[in-house]
Amino acid sequence: MPIYQVDHETVYDYRLSVLYSNHLAHMLPRTVSRQNWISHSIKVDPNPTIQQERLDIFGNRVLAFSIEQEHTHFRFKTTGIVDVQEEKPPKQGETMKWEDVTKLLERPTSDETLDAAMYAYASPFAKFDESVRNYALESFEQDRPIFDAAYELMTRIYTDCKYTPGATRIGAQPQEILRGRKGVC
Amino acid sequence: MNMKCVETKDSFIKSISALSKVELEHRCRRLHNVLDENDLSSSMGGNHKGTDPIPLVITAEEWKTLEAGVAQRARLFNALANDTYGEQSLWKKGKLPATLLFANPYFLQAVWKANPVGGIFVNLASTDVVRLNDDSFVAIADHLQVPEGLGRALENRIGVSRAFPELFRSMQTERLAGFFKKLMDGLNAMHKNIGGEGETSKVVLLASSPDNPRRAEDAVIARYLGIPLVENDDLAIRNMQVYMKTLMGLKKIGTIFRRVEDGMCDPLELRIDSGEGAVGLISSVRAGNVAIANFLGTGVLETPMFKMFLPEICRELLGEELLLRDVETLWLGNATDAERVLAEPEKWIFKKAFRDEGNFKEVEPKAFATMTNTAQLALLQAVDNAPDQWVAERSMEVSTVYAYRGEFTPAVSLMRFFAVNTTKGTSVMPGGLGIFKFTESNATSAASVPTGCTVSEELGEKDIWVLSENPVANFSLLAPAGQAITPSRAGGDLPSRAVENLFRLGRALSSSNMMARIARGIAVRLSDESWMDMPELPWILKAGLTDESQSRFAQDPENALRYFILRKDNKNGMQCVLTEIRELGMQLRDRISEDLWLYLNGFGIAEVPAGTGAAALLPYLKEVLSDSAAVAGLAADSMTRGHEWRFLELGREIECAIRTLRLVKSLLYTAPTDEMTNLRLLQAVLEIGDGLMTYHRRYGGRLQVVPVIDLLLSDESNPRSVAYQVAKLRKAAKHLPGNDQNETTFSPLDRELMRVLAELRLANIEQLAETVDNKRENLIKLVETQINSIERIAEIVNRLYLSHAPRAGVFHATTTDVSEV
Hints:
Structural class of chain A: alpha+beta
Radius of gyration of chain A: 20 Å
Largest sheet of chain A: 3 strands, antiparallel
Number of domains of chain A: 2
Number of domains of chain B: 4
Largest interface: A-B, 31 and 33 residues
Shape of chain A: globular
Strand content of chain B: 5-15%
Helix content of chain A: 10-25%
Number of helices of chain B: 29
Strand order of the largest sheet of chain A: 1-6-3
Shape of chain B: elongated
Structural class of chain B: alpha+beta
Helix content of chain B: 40-55%
Radius of gyration of chain B: 33 Å
Oligomer: heterodimer
């Protein structure tokens, strides 16, 4: 039952002074079945005049805040402490065929299937791309159990693509990462 | 001569068939006069040429059916929005495919689980309806985020009812005013529900951009409802509250009646690339600090693919049967439906299942039967590639109506009806907007029914008259013509954007003027054969042209000059400033006189000089300078001496002072040892600084540096001098809100102005002219301080009155109204 402390710090230095700014940060740890959130602290400099926390559609905690004083330096630091539990993955060959899952997600019938269906479509920030689809399809052989296929795909991404800080920017599309075989997150 | 009779059961046409052709033409002219007169912007005038004098008449009996159907749809779409962004029960129960949500670019993730005031997403809805040959009605489209045509329906009503006042009354036509009152009451109630006090917070109409064809209609609606029309730049968000920037300070906004599309509302969370909207609006809405109508995300409801599911959605969400049926629509992502459609494609009209993101106009529907063979094949191929991207609509036989163009001519028409949802219930406007198209034959399909709202040449508009069984009460929101107006000289809540545009215009005018004078100074010299021997030329080139253009054309001053004057892609060039002047003119359309507007519209648009040689450029520069003089004169003659005029002047004076200082700095920094160069530089600085005439009158032909500096910097009687500009600035600033110079304490703006003026007045010119190693260091020090100070003055004006940046102590604007002088 390892406990992790996750620090994240972002610093901006502006050439011209910023009079006021609005921000949206997706940087708070969330609680899911295998991760328990213990504590976190947020430090923003300059001090925000107002902030608002909410959940986004994916269940992430979003912090919206505004800074209303003139500044040329901006710092955002979070420290989160999470307790990560081991979760046994499904056994090889024991999950549904991936084609059946596809059918299920076309017309969801429950909270769970609707929630899963969301991830079956392109998002406004990651658009559909043929080369990415073909890359993934290599693992999705006919009638293969979905977990086995997904596991293999993840392993391939892990081994094929190199974690390279600075290799991609925030707006990068999946196909760019695939083309260079490197990326950040 | 009576009109040729047409066979019709339409009571209106029967009545006017009795009129003579002369009389009817007279009535048409009256209609168009009323429309022209009411029209805010002449750019919109073209649209109204297409308003037909004959209204579409709906009997009381028919109206019962239509009203119930349209009202139900308004309720239905509101319930659908609540489910889509809330529980999503329709999807969890397997009633709808996941594609409708997750492949739909108009489903806004950022709106998920947001709660609109009173649970109302769709405050204003509209439905397009056609009448079929069997007299039944079918809905062909719904508009649920920014329904267009409400203002046009209003204008058409005013026009047509004044053209046929006796028929309007005798036929007992229902009035529209009550509907607008309900709309306004609904908007007012919204911010009261979120704790906004009626006194301090306002309802505003957030208008589409000035180049949007809908803009004129937005102005009509804002005027009729009596609410301020604002643009994105008028909004400021502080502390998650939304404010309207006015010259008098920030005014709190309670409800935004938006006329801009979903994606354009908040660049922080919606379309980042739009660059439009108020940054952080969604947070303010979620915090419950501002209400917005229609609520964000309602664009998703317009997805054509919802249509085929509506009967079931209606049963599920409202527990009712759908009253007004839709045109039969099938989704080709469904294999059996696709098979049915492709078996007889000629009977169908093909549409994209989702509208393209960023393309707000609906994708042109494709009527298979009317397409060429090649186009048909291409369409079938496109459908085959991505069937889930397409829906097919059954083509229909639409009944014909008559429109008047010299005689009664058959046309096909759709009727757009409007409904409001408020916490008190749903109401339908008893009337609407008819959009028609002349037909060549009687047999027609829905494909030829206009579905868009853009009025092109071949489309016309009609008023819709709903007849009442009972006498109609007389009620109008228009002020009665006899009502007295109290004279007032104050400008009311002048939006900061308007004065900012004038301020920028002032600066751009002064920039263009100085640029043209420097360019003329260069061109005149280059046209001389001996230009290579002119020692002052490099300095003037340096004063006018940027380093970039100079290094690009190091050995070729003529081309450098052309690059500076003519190239539109030169960001530091003259054309950029001229373009800015024309654009500002467009935006100031409703604040300046027609003559001034026309001049700004054509500012610097003169014939491009033909031929080579610098002399060829001179006539063009002369045009620019005369445009600039004409605009200054027209503005002085036609603008009321209020804040608008004041900000135009502030801009001109600030820029003129800065440009003159820079000119002095460039040409007089160095004191060349040889007398010839020295004299020629003094000559040039006077010539470009427009002081040559005065100088000669005062001092004769002898050029000396001390009187030249005095004339350009400190001489308050020279209208081109820096001191003159600053003195005028201070005079104008006296009238700005919160800057009363009679107070015992000085405002920061006034302090800065006084300091600059005192420095100029007290400057010891002899000392300034002193040189150390051929450099006039004292002069440059003064000039640089002055440039910084004046730029700081511009910044203070901007912060106090235009951008309303959060203040850090020193900046302070009062919100008390200051009457204008």
